Amino acid sequence: MQALALDPYRGEKSLVHHLDPRVKIVITITFILSNVLLPDGAWLAFGLSWLLVLAASHLSGLGWGYVIKRSFIALPFALAAFTIIFTLPGRTLASFDLGPWHLSVSDAGLLRFVSILLRSWLSVQMAVLLAATTKFPDLAHGLRHLHVPAILTAIIAFMYRYLFLLTEEALRLMRARAARSARSPESRNVPLKWRARVAGNMAGQLFLRSHERSDRVYNAMLARGYQGQFLTINPHIMQRADWFAIATILLALALIQFAARWGILL
Amino acid sequence: MLYKPAPLHIPDGFLSVTIAVVSWLITIVLLGIAVRRSRGELGERQIPLMGVMAAFIFAAQMINFPVAGGTSGHLLGGALVAITLGPWAAMLVMTSVIGVQALLFQDGGLLVMGANILNMGLLTALIGYGLYRGVAGRSRSARLITTGVAAWLSVMAAALLACTQLWLSGTSPAGVVFPAMLGVHALIGLGEALISVAAVAFITQTRPDLMEAEKVRARGGYGWVIGGLVIALIVVVLSPLASASPDGLERVAEDLGFLSIAQASPYEVLADYLIPWLGESALSTILAGVIGAAVVAGLAYLIGRSLYKPKKQEA
Predict the structure, then answer these.
(1) Is there a single domain that holds both residue A117 and residue A203?
(2) Are residues A176 and A55 in the same domain?
(3) Which of A108, A155, B211, B225 is the most buried (most CB within 10 A)?
(4) B141 or B255: whose pLDDT is higher?
């Protein structure tokens, strides 16, 4: 199955893989929160945070490159923040003319832009690490322990099971469309309305197939004694290593926050 | 790479903590109601149904059709799923989709997930179901036109709210983000509208039992229609206004003090909002924060409650 390649989990035997999923979720969220709380231009603190990610990805046994290679997914969004360089009031660093506009780069704007990018980039790296070192069912179970409503965690656990199947089905529909469209769909002879209708029919068909599949799944579950809740054989008990990991990271993040403010004072 | 990130999923780092937290509060309250409501409606059936339908939305977002010049139209799905499954179910389904996209693929952040759910899951469900419920039982063309309008508006509403969050966070200047994002999404919304209309037409034709007027109306009260119309009106009025004169918007927000609150860190916000008669103690600061959070949550709860359908007599 082509769609299986979507699953980001990379099975290794490492310290990070063995941590309790709850601990990893809390660490990831706290790390992201810490990044967002860092003031603009706190370079020392950004560097220390990156060291933390690097250490974690080294301990995970995935190698240095894995996380970095996958950390650029949020990069296109940088476009949304790009123009802040020119609009935030500050000292002018450089100015040039671009067509009808006169643009001047301000120091405050550049500082804000680079800081936003760094915050986002660091946060994505930790999230990549979380997904790569935790099996999704464990992740859903960890969320349940963290008091996310049982219905939601059950739905996402279920969604994960059928994600690859339905993605494969969508890809099959698209392959069938390509096979039956002798003319390039970009061709002017094929009206836009027709192209859109075909895509909509595919979505509708996929909807009905999924709807009927959910009926079958429910009946099968009833047949196996389903009573409205999921049972697990993995109890997820906090070990000493879990407490140690979470205490270390929280302490490190507190130090980073302190370093950022201290650095500004200097 | 098979998986492509969508433009509306805000990543971590792009929103200020204050905006992220306020969005989470609204999202949590509405989701809390959705969890309670849908449990009563579907019982234990709901988990397999919504789980598979969430996987469906994820897969359907990959279906695209070429528009012109290398761009392609594709589906967000919030309005479609609200029209076909009802508003509460749609909220849970879209929340799961956005959650899994963030957790598995880092498409959209974790700390800002509340904002992403609010924009793409809750708002789209409100508009999609609200407008469609208003025409349930009317002629086929009325229903399909409303589906298209609702789908287009749902994308515009999500983009408008995302712009507002980015702008209030100090990430994007209003003068750029509103015209750019709304312009792009006016086009993306057309793709959404075309696919949604065709999909609803297909489903109505193949399984008319799923789309019976009686069934559609049973999924939510009349409050949804009013809510949907109000949001639609806001989008229609505010979108051109925000694109044409963002400076005016900026001035209003500045006068009201929104900008400084939204961009400051939470501890700075609390420091500004000490409760006078308690003096400048840590206690009053914490209390101020708690009261602020309670007010936001309470407002969201009241809005959510008004959407309740009056309980049927169960004898």
Answers:
(1) no
(2) no
(3) A155
(4) B141
Q: How confident is the model at residue B99 (pLDDT cuts 50, 70, 90)?
A: very high
Answer yes or no: do A46 and A166 share one domain. Answer: no
Confidence (pTM): 0.86
CA distance linking residue B100 with residue B109, whole number of Å: 11
A20 exposure class (CB count in 10 Å sphere: 0-12, 13-18, 19+)? buried
Its domain, for residue A86, covers 13-146+237-265
- Do residue B66 and residue A195 have CB atoms under 8 angstroms apart? yes
From A237's Cα to the closest Cα of chain B, the distance in A is: 22
Are A124 and A160 in a shared domain? no
Whether residue A158 is contained in a domain is answered as yes
Per-residue pLDDT of chain A (266 residues; tens, 9 = 90+): 567 777 888 888 888 888 999 999 999 999 999 999 998 888 889 999 999 999 999 999 888 788 888 888 878 788 888 888 888 888 888 777 776 677 788 888 889 999 999 999 999 999 999 999 999 988 988 998 898 988 899 899 889 989 999 999 999 998 888 888 766 555 566 777 788 888 899 999 999 999 999 999 999 988 988 776 666 667 778 889 899 999 999 999 999 988 887 765 55
Neighboring chain B residues of A2 at a CB cutoff of 8 Å: 2
Query: Are A119 and A17 contained in the same domain?
Result: yes
Question: Which residues of chain B make contact with A124, given a CB cutoff of 8 A?
Answer: 11-12, 106, 109
Best of B14, B44, B52 to disrupt the A interface (most A CBs within 10 Å) is B52
Residues A30 and A134 placed together within one structural domain of the fold: yes
Separation between Cα atoms, residue B82 and residue A183, nearest integer Å = 35
DSSP for B131-182, please give it. Answer: HHHHHTTS-HHHHHHHHHHHHHHHHHHHHHHHHHHHHHTTSS-HHHHHHHHH
Identify the pLDDT of residue B112. Answer: 94
Q: Is residue A190 part of a domain?
A: no
Domain count, chain A: 2
CA gap B184, B182 in Å, rounded: 6
**Residue A191 within a domain:** no
